[in-house]
Amino acid sequence: MTGAYPRRSLRRSAEIVFRATVRADELRFHAVPDTSVEFTGDADSDSTSGSVRTNLPDQVAEKVVYRDVRIDYAIAARLRRGSGDSHRQ
Predict the structure, then answer these.
(1) Which of 24, 64, 73, 88 could anchor a disulfide with 69, C-beta 3.0 to 4.6 Å?
(2) Which branch of life, at top level (predicted)?
(3) DSSP class of 4
């Protein structure tokens, strides 16, 4: 698992939730990617992203073939109080 996969309570209460699942029979990286997620603007400090990976390590290697890969990825962002909709429930 990479990062902190957003906990269920945050995914339910967040104003913005993005979820994706990617599957691949084979996956190879020509270069090790440098990735990051940054929350700016009105995002609350509880906002987070993360992934659960199958057959893909947190640190991938160049030119290694990974097979039967699955990545479940999610971003959950909550707005800071007072910056979003005033009638939030």
Answers:
(1) 24
(2) Bacteria
(3) -
Q: What is the DSSP string of 52-75?
A: EEES--SS--BTPEEEEEEEEEEE
Tokens at 77, concatenated: 């962002």
One pLDDT digit (tens) per residue for the chain, 89 residues: 455 577 777 777 788 888 899 999 999 999 999 988 888 888 888 888 888 999 999 899 999 999 999 999 988 888 887 655 544 44
Record the tokens describing residue 59, joined without a space.
């640190």
Q: Nearest CA to 2 among 33, 30, 41?
A: 33
Specify the amino acid at residue 7: R
Integer Cα distance of 76 and 72 in angstroms? 13
Strands 2-3 vs 48-54: parallel, antiparallel or unpaired = antiparallel
Residue ranges of domains in the chain: 2-77
